[in-house]
Protein backbone atom coordinates (compact mmCIF):
# COMPACT_ATOMS: atom_id res chain seq x y z
CA UNK A 1 0.00 0.00 0.00
CA UNK A 2 2.87 2.41 0.79
CA UNK A 3 4.21 1.75 -2.68
CA UNK A 4 0.97 2.95 -4.31
CA UNK A 5 0.62 5.93 -2.00
CA UNK A 6 3.98 7.38 -3.04
CA UNK A 7 3.14 6.86 -6.75
CA UNK A 8 -0.27 8.53 -6.34
CA UNK A 9 1.23 11.40 -4.34
CA UNK A 10 3.94 11.84 -6.99
CA UNK A 11 1.32 11.86 -9.78
CA UNK A 12 -0.75 14.50 -7.94
CA UNK A 13 2.33 16.71 -7.43
CA UNK A 14 3.41 16.36 -11.08
CA UNK A 15 -0.17 17.09 -12.21
CA UNK A 16 -0.32 20.16 -10.00
CA UNK A 17 3.01 21.48 -11.33
CA UNK A 18 2.00 20.89 -14.95
CA UNK A 19 -1.34 22.63 -14.43
CA UNK A 20 0.44 25.64 -12.88
CA UNK A 21 2.79 25.76 -15.85
CA UNK A 22 -0.13 25.69 -18.33
CA UNK A 23 -2.03 28.42 -16.45
CA UNK A 24 1.07 30.64 -16.44
CA UNK A 25 1.54 30.15 -20.18
CA UNK A 26 -2.07 31.15 -20.84
CA UNK A 27 -1.76 34.29 -18.68
CA UNK A 28 1.44 35.32 -20.48
CA UNK A 29 -0.28 34.89 -23.84
CA UNK A 30 -3.24 37.03 -22.70
CA UNK A 31 -0.89 39.79 -21.54
CA UNK A 32 1.00 39.64 -24.82
CA UNK A 33 -2.21 40.01 -26.83
CA UNK A 34 -3.21 43.03 -24.74
CA UNK A 35 0.19 44.69 -25.17
CA UNK A 36 0.21 44.17 -28.93
CA UNK A 37 -3.35 45.35 -29.59
CA UNK A 38 -2.53 47.66 -32.47
CA UNK A 39 -5.96 49.22 -32.71
CA UNK A 40 -7.80 50.15 -35.87
CA UNK A 41 -6.14 51.16 -39.13
CA UNK A 42 -6.43 54.86 -40.00
CA UNK A 43 -4.85 56.78 -42.87
CA UNK A 44 -3.18 60.15 -42.43
CA UNK A 45 -2.91 62.30 -45.55
CA UNK A 46 0.66 63.61 -45.61
CA UNK A 47 1.36 66.89 -47.37
CA UNK A 48 5.14 66.93 -47.03
CA UNK A 49 8.31 66.40 -45.04
CA UNK A 50 10.44 69.39 -44.12
CA UNK A 51 13.78 69.91 -42.45
CA UNK A 52 12.85 73.06 -40.51
CA UNK A 53 9.91 74.77 -38.87
CA UNK A 54 10.36 77.71 -41.24
CA UNK A 55 9.89 75.40 -44.23
CA UNK A 56 6.71 74.03 -42.68
CA UNK A 57 5.29 77.52 -42.19
CA UNK A 58 6.25 78.57 -45.73
CA UNK A 59 4.69 75.52 -47.38
CA UNK A 60 1.46 75.28 -45.38
CA UNK A 61 0.08 78.80 -45.81
CA UNK A 62 -2.86 77.47 -47.87
CA UNK A 63 -4.10 75.28 -45.03
CA UNK A 64 -6.23 76.59 -42.22
CA UNK A 65 -5.42 73.53 -40.10
CA UNK A 66 -2.69 70.91 -40.19
CA UNK A 67 -0.71 68.88 -37.71
CA UNK A 68 2.98 68.09 -37.61
CA UNK A 69 5.01 65.35 -36.08
CA UNK A 70 8.76 65.37 -35.67
CA UNK A 71 10.55 62.13 -36.50
CA UNK A 72 14.31 61.87 -36.99
CA UNK A 73 14.64 65.68 -36.94
CA UNK A 74 12.21 66.00 -39.87
CA UNK A 75 8.80 67.70 -39.76
CA UNK A 76 5.97 65.62 -41.22
CA UNK A 77 2.87 67.62 -42.13
CA UNK A 78 -0.58 65.96 -42.16
CA UNK A 79 -3.62 67.63 -43.68
CA UNK A 80 -6.28 64.92 -43.49
CA UNK A 81 -7.28 61.69 -41.78
CA UNK A 82 -9.72 58.92 -42.76
CA UNK A 83 -10.44 55.21 -42.30
CA UNK A 84 -12.05 54.78 -45.71
CA UNK A 85 -10.00 53.88 -48.81
CA UNK A 86 -12.44 55.70 -51.13
CA UNK A 87 -12.12 58.82 -49.01
CA UNK A 88 -8.33 58.67 -49.39
CA UNK A 89 -8.81 58.99 -53.14
CA UNK A 90 -11.34 61.81 -52.67
CA UNK A 91 -9.02 63.73 -50.33
CA UNK A 92 -5.98 63.22 -52.52
CA UNK A 93 -7.99 64.42 -55.54
CA UNK A 94 -9.10 67.49 -53.60
CA UNK A 95 -5.53 68.35 -52.58
CA UNK A 96 -4.25 67.54 -56.06
CA UNK A 97 -6.61 70.21 -57.46
CA UNK A 98 -5.05 72.63 -54.97
CA UNK A 99 -1.63 71.80 -56.44
CA UNK A 100 -0.34 69.45 -53.73
CA UNK A 101 0.95 65.94 -54.09
CA UNK A 102 -0.06 63.93 -51.04
CA UNK A 103 0.67 60.52 -49.63
CA UNK A 104 -1.34 58.32 -47.32
CA UNK A 105 0.33 56.97 -44.22
CA UNK A 106 -1.12 54.02 -42.31
CA UNK A 107 -1.29 54.33 -38.53
CA UNK A 108 -3.13 52.38 -35.86
CA UNK A 109 -5.43 54.12 -33.39
CA UNK A 110 -6.89 52.62 -30.22
CA UNK A 111 -8.88 55.65 -29.00
CA UNK A 112 -12.51 54.52 -29.37
CA UNK A 113 -13.93 58.05 -29.06
CA UNK A 114 -11.86 59.26 -31.98
CA UNK A 115 -12.69 56.21 -34.08
CA UNK A 116 -16.44 56.80 -33.56
CA UNK A 117 -16.13 60.47 -34.51
CA UNK A 118 -14.00 59.60 -37.53
CA UNK A 119 -16.64 57.13 -38.71
CA UNK A 120 -19.23 59.93 -38.71
CA UNK A 121 -16.93 62.32 -40.56
CA UNK A 122 -16.07 59.61 -43.08
CA UNK A 123 -19.77 59.11 -43.79
CA UNK A 124 -20.17 62.86 -44.37
CA UNK A 125 -17.11 62.93 -46.59
CA UNK A 126 -18.49 60.09 -48.75
CA UNK A 127 -21.64 62.06 -49.52
CA UNK A 128 -20.13 65.44 -50.44
CA UNK A 129 -18.29 66.97 -53.36
CA UNK A 130 -18.33 70.52 -51.98
CA UNK A 131 -14.75 71.74 -51.47
CA UNK A 132 -15.69 73.94 -48.49
CA UNK A 133 -17.28 70.97 -46.73
CA UNK A 134 -14.29 68.73 -47.55
CA UNK A 135 -11.97 71.37 -46.08
CA UNK A 136 -14.12 71.70 -42.94
CA UNK A 137 -14.20 67.92 -42.48
CA UNK A 138 -10.40 67.73 -42.80
CA UNK A 139 -9.99 70.48 -40.21
CA UNK A 140 -12.39 68.84 -37.77
CA UNK A 141 -10.95 65.34 -38.08
CA UNK A 142 -7.41 66.63 -37.64
CA UNK A 143 -8.47 68.67 -34.63
CA UNK A 144 -10.09 65.62 -33.02
CA UNK A 145 -7.09 63.44 -33.93
CA UNK A 146 -4.75 65.92 -32.26
CA UNK A 147 -7.00 66.22 -29.20
CA UNK A 148 -7.92 62.58 -28.63
CA UNK A 149 -5.06 60.56 -30.12
CA UNK A 150 -1.95 62.73 -30.02
CA UNK A 151 -2.99 64.32 -26.71
CA UNK A 152 -3.84 60.87 -25.34
CA UNK A 153 -0.34 59.59 -26.18
CA UNK A 154 1.35 62.48 -24.35
CA UNK A 155 -0.07 61.42 -20.98
Can you put this structure into words, describing what you see?
- The chain has 155 residues and is an alpha+beta fold.
- It has 2 domains: 1-37; 40-154, Alpha-Beta Plaits, CATH 3.30.70.1070.
- Helix content is 61%, strand content 21%.
- It is built from 5 helices and 4 strands.
- It has helices at residues 2-35, 53-59, 85-97, 112-127, 131-154; strands at 40-50, 67-71, 74-82, 103-109.
- It has a 4-stranded antiparallel beta sheet.
- β2 and β3 (74-82) form a beta hairpin.
- α4 runs antiparallel to α5.
- It starts with a helix and ends with a helix.
- The model has no long low-confidence stretch (mean pLDDT 86).
CATH superfamily of the largest domain: Sporulation related repeat
CATH architecture label name of the largest domain = 2-Layer Sandwich
Low confidence ranges = none
- End-to-end Cα distance: 65 Å
What is the CATH class designation of the largest domain?
Answer: Alpha Beta
Query: Structural class, please?
Result: alpha+beta
Taken from the alpha-carbon principal axes, the silhouette is elongated
C-alpha Rg (nearest Å): 26 Å
Beta-strand content estimate:
15-25%
Say how many strands there are.
4
Order of strands, main sheet, comes to 2-3-1-4
Order of helical and strand elements: HEHEEHEHH
The domain tally reads 2
**Overall pLDDT:** 86
Count of discrete alpha- or pi-helical segments spanning 4 or more residues: 5
**Major sheet summary line:** 4 strands, antiparallel
CATH topology descriptor of the largest domain: Alpha-Beta Plaits
Residue share in helix: 55-70%
Amino acid sequence: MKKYLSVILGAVIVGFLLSQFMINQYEKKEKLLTVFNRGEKVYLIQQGVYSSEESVLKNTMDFSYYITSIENNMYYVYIGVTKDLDNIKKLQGYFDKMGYITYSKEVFVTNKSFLEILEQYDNLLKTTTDNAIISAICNQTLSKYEELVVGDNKD
